[in-house]
């Protein structure tokens, strides 16, 4: 049960949802993602793109399809915190630039945040590998059992919950794991069975099982207390 009274979940009139998208050199994928969000904008949601210093046309392409295009120092957590600071809504959705929401996302999120203070979607990884269906199912099951979620599952939360845990920890890796651990201390998540569709490009490029082993190894080291700067260097080296 949420630690926040349910009456706090009745949003005041105005913007129902702020969608915050951190980007870096996403000119190829971003226009399609933003185009898919236009029906939500028509329903009153705002879209905030936070650029971390792209060297391509990402900010220019985002301008006509977003309510705000911000620039911040690079770092996904830092960018998302900057977007949350600018956001007008009492409900926040953090969306990766290669992830597509289900058509009824606004209604699903609104209903979920009346019952819970935060949540996430199930995920479908879209790519060439035949293992992606199984990997998606494993991610969804692990998240449902553990109450921990990853950023590509489209994390959403009430602003009071976001503020209560101090926002996203500005660390170079595992910021999604860390904030969901903190949010879980407030309440169990709303685990929506509706699926976001996220790119499986990293799985295709490196290989499905090699990527699984890499992520398990990084998470084990994180659990053991290894500094996130060191983990990020290892991750960048492998990529």
TrEMBL record:
Gene3D superfamilies: Spore Coat Polysaccharide Biosynthesis Protein SpsA, Chain A. NCBIfam families: glyco_like_mftF. It comes from the Bacteria. Transmembrane segments: none annotated. Residues 18-115 form the Glycosyltransferase 2-like domain. It holds the Pfam family Glycos_transf_2. This is TIGR04283 family arsenosugar biosynthesis glycosyltransferase. The keyword Glycosyltransferase applies. Keywords: Cell membrane, Glycosyltransferase, Membrane, Transferase. It is found in: Cell membrane.
């Amino acid at each position: 049960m949420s630690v926040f009274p349910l009456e706090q979940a009745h949003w005041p009139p105005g913007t129902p949802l702020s969608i915050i998208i951190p980007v870096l050199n996403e000119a190829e994928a971003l226009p399609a993602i933003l185009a898919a969000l236009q029906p939500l904008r028509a329903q009153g949601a705002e879209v905030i793109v936070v650029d971390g210093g792209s060297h391509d046309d990402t900010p220019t392409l985002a301008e006509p399809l977003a309510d705000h295009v911000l620039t911040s120092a690079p770092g996904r957590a830092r960018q998302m915190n900057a977007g949350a600071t600018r956001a007008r809504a009492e409900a926040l959705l953090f969306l990766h630039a290669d992830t597509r929401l289900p058509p009824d996302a606004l209604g699903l999120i609104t209903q979920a945040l009346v019952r819970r203070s935060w949540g996430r979607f199930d995920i479908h990884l879209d790519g060439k590998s035949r293992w992606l269906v199984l990997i998606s199912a494993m991610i969804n099951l692990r998240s449902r059992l553990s109450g921990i979620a990853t950023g590509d599952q489209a994390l959403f939360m009430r602003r009071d919950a976001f503020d209560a845990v101090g926002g996203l920890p500005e660390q170079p890796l595992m910021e999604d794991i860390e904030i969901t651990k903190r949010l879980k201390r407030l309440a169990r998540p709303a685990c929506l069975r509706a699926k976001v569709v996220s790119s499986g490009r990293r799985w295709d490029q490196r290989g499905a099982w090699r990527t699984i082993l890499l992520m398990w190894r990084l998470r084990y080291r994180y659990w053991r207390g290894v500094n996130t700067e060191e983990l990020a260097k290892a991750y960048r080296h492998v990529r």
